[in-house]
Structure formats: structure tokens, C-alpha cells
Design goal:
By secondary structure, the protein is an alpha+beta fold. It contains 6 helices and 5 strands; from the N terminus they run ββαββαβαααα. A 5-stranded mixed sheet has the order 2-1-5-3-4. Strand 3 and strand 4 form a beta hairpin. Helix 3 packs antiparallel against helix 4. It comes from Sporosarcina newyorkensis. InterPro entries: DUF8042 (IPR058355). This is DUF8042 domain-containing protein.
Length: 199
């Protein structure tokens, strides 16, 4: 198999998925994050390890597509900005639904919000561990800490079946923190980031 990264080709004979992954990790080191790879013309964006486990012995050419740490952080922040812009208009109606009488779809929306909060937390931890934290990183840490408190309060309110408190937390805690996160991201992107497709 030919393993290609940045126009350099390495030949791997009878490589297992584990060998290939080890070689990819060595090539990327701390300077790059794996975006995806192209295996004999097929682009693979997720479940890389499973794909390699199933196809390693058949692959003839494996091209590694990576992003620099800065590009990776930039793309994470763009995704987070997109998410907050979609989520913010939904939070007030969600809070209102808990004040009234939450329906099954209200709980589904809350579950989606909790998934989004988990993703935001993981995204911030990933950026925090990278070598490319934004210059306004302290603002992100402050918001992250507040969001952690909100999640604990929300969990307690859910456990106590206190719908009014759930609505209050969404309206008066989460909404301002989402708006704060959006502002921090915009500040980063305006001063340090790169927006794609600005047509």
C-alpha cells in the first residue's frame, strides 16, 4: 500500500489497520489533525479505524488529508458559531414550553439541547488541549464554567420534575451563555479566524 501525506509517499507492506493508524499518527504528530483520507478514490470522513479494519489488505493507495491545528480550531469555532446561531432563537420558545405544559416534543428538544451542550463542552476541551487557543480564550473558559453550572442545575431540575425551574434555567442562564459564546466566537473569527465562502 502507498500511504501519501503532503506529497510524500511511504510504502507499507502487508500493513494491518493498527500499523496504518500508527503510521498516520506518526505523520500527523502534534502539528496536524486528520480531516479524512482517500482510500483508492473513496473519501472516508468518519469511522476511520473500522474502515481500515475492513479494507486494509485491499487498499492500494491511501491519501491522508489533514488540517493544521489552527485550521482545525478555526473549523470547530465556525461549527460552534453556526450551532449557537441556530440554537439561540429556539431557547426562549423552549423555556416558554416548560412554563406552560411540556409536551413530548418539548422533552425531545431539551434532549437535543443537552446533546448540543455536550458537544460544546467537548469542542472547548479539544481546543483547550490544542496549541492554537484563541487570544480571548479566558472568555471561553468563563462561559464554559457557567455552562457546566447550568448543566448541573438543569439535571437537578429535571430530576425534581420542576418544569418552571427548567424553563428559568433555559431562559435566564443558558440563553445568555449561548449569546456570550456566540460573541466570543465572533470576536475570535473577526480578529484571528478565517471564514469560508464569504460570497
Amino acid at each position: 500500500m502507498e500511504l501519501i501525506f503532503q506529497q510524500q509517499t511511504t510504502t507499507l507492506d502487508n500493513a494491518t489497520a493498527e500499523n496504518i493508524i500508527e503510521q498516520i499518527n506518526n505523520l500527523l504528530a502534534k502539528d496536524y489533525y486528520l480531516s479524512h483520507f482517500i482510500a483508492d478514490g473513496a473519501e472516508v470522513y468518519e469511522d476511520h479505524e473500522n474502515y481500515l479494519n475492513e479494507h486494509a489488505e485491499k487498499i492500494e493507495k491511501l491519501e491522508i488529508i489533514a488540517k493544521t491545528v489552527k485550521e482545525f480550531v478555526n473549523d470547530l469555532l465556525l461549527s460552534a458559531e453556526e450551532y449557537t446561531q441556530r440554537a439561540i432563537p429556539e431557547l426562549a420558545p423552549l423555556a416558554e414550553a416548560f412554563y406552560d405544559n411540556p409536551q413530548p416534543e418539548t422533552w425531545t428538544t431539551l434532549d437535543q439541547l443537552l446533546g448540543g451542550l455536550q458537544w460544546i463542552n467537548e469542542m472547548l476541551m479539544t481546543i483547550g488541549k490544542s496549541m492554537a487557543v484563541p487570544s480571548n480564550w479566558q472568555g471561553y473558559i468563563t462561559i464554559s464554567n457557567k455552562l457546566q453550572e447550568d448543566i448541573l442545575s438543569l439535571a437537578e431540575a429535571i430530576e425534581n420534575e420542576d418544569n418552571v425551574l427548567i424553563g428559568d434555567i433555559i431562559q435566564y442562564e443558558l440563553l445568555p451563555n449561548f449569546e456570550g459564546l456566540e460573541k466570543e466566537i465572533q470576536l475570535t473569527m473577526d480578529n484571528e479566524g478565517l471564514r469560508h465562502d464569504l460570497n
